[in-house]
Amino acid sequence: MKLETQRLILRNYTLDDFDALYEIMSDAETMQHYPAPFDKDRTRGWIEWNLDNYKKYGWGLWAVVLKESGEFIGDCGITLQNIDGEELPEIGYHIHKKYWRQGFAKEAARAVRDWVFENTKYDAIYSYMKYTNIGSYSTAIANGMKKVKEYPDPKNEISYAYAITREEWNSLLKFSMAKKDDLEEIFLLYKNAIAKMDEEKIPQWDEVYPDKKILSDDIEKNQMYVGKKNGKIALCFVLNEECDEEYKNAEWICPGSRFCVIHRLCVNPDFQHQGLAGQAMNHIEEFCKKAKYDSIRLDCFTQNPYSRKLYDKKGYAITGYADWRKGRFELREKKL
Q: From CA 103, how far away is CA 259, in angstroms rounded?
């Protein structure tokens, strides 16, 4: 089994992970919310328990390693746990303390959450923790879970249980890289959005730009991303480091820095006016921070009041202008 996120790979445990895991599980600070740190026998037993879970269920806690270096930094996955007397599917995570507060637990847990709903029949997933474990329940909340129980627990004194249902998960806006099979739905989304803009007298795009070849190339180059909600593509955008010659006209806030450029952000008319573009911008900024960009640049059509309002609200400063076939565009940037 292998799951990939922007920065992580989740894979099956092997016995070779013992030393790296023992460094985490034997640490008193890391295990402060457990009755005691793990000794070598319990650490070895932890790996063997998960190897057994893979055979029984096809899942368990998976090793979490950094894509960039291959370093083992913890584990995350799904196991069956006794939560207030019920055996329930629970997302658990342990991350090496030197990588705390960098979003790795959230990133791994989100991938596991999606995998469980896509590959099992469970209608709800849980996370439970000792009431003092702020980091753990903050991760649960960040991944769409809500507090559903607070109960006495001999192991934890008091335990909190958080959960997300399949229905709630379906309603979330979930981002992923576009696939070739998405092309027709993406093309129709842009076509319908252009028709809607024409109705509102916003002549930003047309049948020339962006056409199907441009969108196909975006997907082929792994630069097109989609946000899906209730199984439908609700929005699209492109991220890369490419910009037109006219970008030289701007007085950039971060000249000479490493920047990412947003292109072709478009919301499906069926999902407009629900705050999804704002959610997409939040996701893009988080993505770019993880990728160690210094700033984000984009261009905004001066006759599109919705885009201008969005970028104003998100703090993208106007640094110059460019004149293209459809009219004048603002060149904007935000320092991360």
A: 21
